[in-house]
Every structure is written in structure tokens, then in C-alpha cells.
Amino acid sequence: MRAGVEFNAETPRFSASSAPLRLISAVFLALAVSLVPPSHAATVRLRDGVERTVEPAAFATLAVASIEEFRLAELPPPDRWRLGFLVQTAAGDSLRTERLRLRDDRLLVETPLTGLAELPLSAASLVWLKPPATIPETTRREIQQAAVSRLRQDALFVRKASEWVRLDGVLQSLDEKRVTFRWQDGEREIPLALAGALVLAASQPPATPREKFAAVCGADSSRLVGELRALSPDSVTLAVPSLGEVAVPLDTVAVVDALWGRGVFVSELDPATVAEAGWFGTRFPWRRDASVSGRPLTLRGRVFERGLGVHSRSSLTYALDKKFSLLTGVIGLDDDGGAAGRVQFVVRGDGREMFRATLSGADEPKPLRVAVAGVERLELLVDFARDEDTGDRADWASLRLIR
Length: 403
Known about the structure:
The longest helix is centred in the middle third of the chain and has 11 residues, at 137-147. A hairpin with a 4-residue loop joins β15 (214-218) and β16 (223-231). The chain is mainly beta. The protein has a domain at 264-402: Jelly Rolls, CATH 2.60.120.1060. The protein has helices spanning 26-31, 137-147, and strands at residues 42-46, 51-54, 67-71, 85-89, 94-97, 100-103, 106-111, 115-120, 124-128, 154-160, 163-174, 178-183, 186-191, 195-199, 214-218, 223-231, 235-240, 244-249, 253-257, 263-265, 273-276, 287-288, 297-299, 302-304, 307-311, 314-319, 326-333, 342-349, 352-360, 366-371, 377-384, 393-402.
């Protein structure tokens, strides 16, 4: 049994079976920025691709099974997090919290999406004790790799002088100031100022297949996943594997992504073939989750966390093996190139052209939605248009394949 951190008498406690969880901290809500008024209309995209604006009074009339996306606001930039902690679960939750305590085998977290809640430690896979962007990339990769591995012991990453080191042991206690860790037959109390991340060995994947999960994405960049149950004028209800049934206040929500569990970001896949050549033969290598210049993918000021950054002429092919039904995303020329550039975005399936659009740096980004059912080999082509290849920094932003 892990040693617990004691709570004072005023600390409210909830069990994982509480349904629905209540938002109880007005202070924490006040700290959440960019919240959407409950009366705000939503842009709803249905499974047939049709988009329409829906007023709050009609939210409850929407059949949740017909919803693809329910958008109240744009998602915040991915690098917005600066303070607090980030708790990630094996199910796919990503919860930003300024409150973090271990009591027995539960983590106390507090987010606008969940309120004050107790998360079973067996559900948590990774706790970022510092913003990932503040940790060197090589160490970040090691942390992320450990989080998807089957560990025998917990792994704590701490800073020693100018280096980051990994300690393998057992978590004993944790709060907002320190972590106690059993390592090499002794307990060590480590200030959180020296700790970067904690990977938990006891993490267990949920019994429910991922394909059934929707994601509620918060205005604070948190994400809560589960089976979508209902919408009302003031809340969205999810059946969350680790917390039971949760009614999330809509004034904390930016987007409900009903296809989250069925989607795979193309940037997670390795292309089967790559062909790249600029106008004069110069090669500009494609990038995952970044523009071709290495900066965040940005279209008209909107920053995208996932996607592909390329430069004309670029051809990337992927082996789909008939496993997917839909390709979605947003295309455009990255803000990094200004108003310069003009390219042709082309999608081909098994050699057959399925989509083509010509865009310049002065054009608005364009939604992409292509049916790919039955396709074995998918090609993403960015070709020259007018003006040779000057400024042709093209983005396939938020590009996903849906099963």
C-alpha cells in the first residue's frame, strides 16, 4: 500500500463512483480562461459532414450518435500551459490541474471539466510535474516511451545538476511541493522543483474499446474521454472509465470530438514512401507536428498541435490497407510564409484523384474531408502552382484518419 498524503478536515472527498461529479471550486473556475458562456451557440458537424449552428435550447434534441463534432470555441494553443501539473491516463485523458495529492491509491485532481475528483492511481499513466516544453526533447521522448511501456516499477525523472536522470522505484507520497520515492532500498523526499515527470507502473488500460470514446476538450486544454451519453443546454455527460458518469459544464468546454476514439493522426504513422524536390531540386524535409520550418503549425493565427508540415513539391504515401473510412483535417499555407506561396493540395487513393484544391498564402484555410473507405494506399501530394515554389510552406493540419 502506498503511503497517503493526509487531507485536512475541510478538504472535500469524492469516490470514483460519484455520478455525476460536481464542479465545486469557484476559485478554480475563476482561474480557467477563455470560458464560453452557457448561452453560446455551437457549431455542430454531423456524421454526414453537414455543419449547422445550434442554439443552446436545442442541444438536448441532438442525437449524440449522429454528432461528429460539437464546437463552442477554438481550442487554445498547445503551448499555453505554464503552471500546475498534467495528469494523463491510459484511457487518453489529459487533465491540467493545480491541485495534486496522493491519498492511498487515488490522486486528487481539480480541473474545470471534472471539478474536484479522485482518480484511481491505476488509471493514471503519466504525471507531468513540469510543462513538457521545459524538459529537453531527448528526455521528453524517454518519458513518453516509458509511459507506453509495461514497467515493473514507477519511474521518476529528476534533474541532477544540468542533466535529467531516471529513478526506478515505488511512489510513496505526492503533493504540490514534494514527492517521496522508494529507490535503492531507501525512501527519498524530492522537492518538485527538481522533478520533471512520473511514470506509473500500475496503469491499466480501460476495458471499454477506445473506438467508443469521445473526447471533451476544455478551454484550459484539458481532455476528458469516455462514452458520450447526453447533451443539455448547460452540460455534456460522459461515461468516463476512471470516474464514472461525469456531467461536464458547457462553460468549461471548447470542443466535443465524438470521433476521437476512432481517429489516428497521420503524423503518428510512418509514410511508406517519401518524394520531395523543390523547384530547383532543393529538398525541404517534411515534419511531424510542426511546419516545414520547424515552428508550430499555424494557419491564420490558429495553432495546431498535430499535423504535417511540407514544402512543394512533396509526396507522402501511406499504407491504409482498407482500414479507414474518412480523412479529415485543415489545409493551408503556414503563416510562417506570410502571403507568399501558392500550391495544389491533392489527395489520391490507389492512384485515383479524390481531392484537389489550389490555395495561396492569402487564402483562408480550407477544411478537408475525403471518404477513403476501401483505399489501400493513400497519397498526400503538395504540388507547384503559380510562382514556382516561393513561400510554398504547406500544412496538413489536424490530419486524421477515421476508422
